[in-house]
Amino acid sequence: MRWAGGERAYLDQPDVVASGHMVLGRYGGRTVAGARQNEDAAFLRHAPAGHWEMAAVADGHAGADSSALAVRLLDGDPLLPQILGQPAPNPLAALHAHLVTRFQTADTSSIAGETAVLVAARCSLQPDGEAAGAQPQQNSHVTTRRRKQ
């Protein structure tokens, strides 16, 4: 699931939506306090069996285009399930390397503004097709910030 504040800002009206067992809250602020737009975005994805999950928030500045691009890049990435579903030693290190490359090589020539992206992922140590049981989990996050040149 992906959402971008430029599509729907949720000004003056908080919204909560579920995607499988994950929940996303969206709120753009109060117009009486000066809120006029929402430049943020979010992305949720999880394995159907629940062996991995990933969430991202993008905090846009000077326009919503950059945060919308960040979540489009994640939503359209066919390698995410493959990377997050792989067994140990460390799918999160592979995710980190993949996302940094993906964000740094994206074509931003027509994008106004900038965004900061926070990604959080949880992976079981079991392959995606097996039950995770009481196995330990790996947790990680990726942050990257790219300014428009």
Write up what this structure looks like.
This protein is an alpha+beta fold. The chain has one domain. The protein contains three helices and seven strands. The chain has helices at 65-75, 80-84, 91-104; strands at 2-4, 15-19, 22-26, 40-46, 52-61, 114-124, 137-146. The longest helix is centred in the middle third of the chain and has 14 residues, at 91-104. The protein is flat, with a radius of gyration of 16 Å. Residues 128-149 are annotated as: Disordered.
Note the topology.
Blueprint lengths: L1 E3 L10 E5 L2 E5 L13 E7 L5 E10 L3 H11 L4 H5 L6 H14 L9 E11 L12 E10 L3
Antiparallel strand pairs: 1-4, 2-3, 4-5, 5-6, 6-7
Name the average pLDDT: 83
Strand percentage lies at 25-35%
Query: What is the H/E string?
Result: EEEEEHHHEE
Q: How much is the radius of gyration in Å?
A: 16 Å
Structural class: alpha+beta
Q: How many separate helices?
A: 3
Please indicate the count of domains.
Answer: 1
Quick recap:
The protein is of the alpha+beta class. It has helices spanning 65-75, 80-84, 91-104; strands at 2-4, 15-19, 22-26, 40-46, 52-61, 114-124, 137-146.
What are the key terms here?
PPM-type phosphatase domain-containing protein, 149 residues
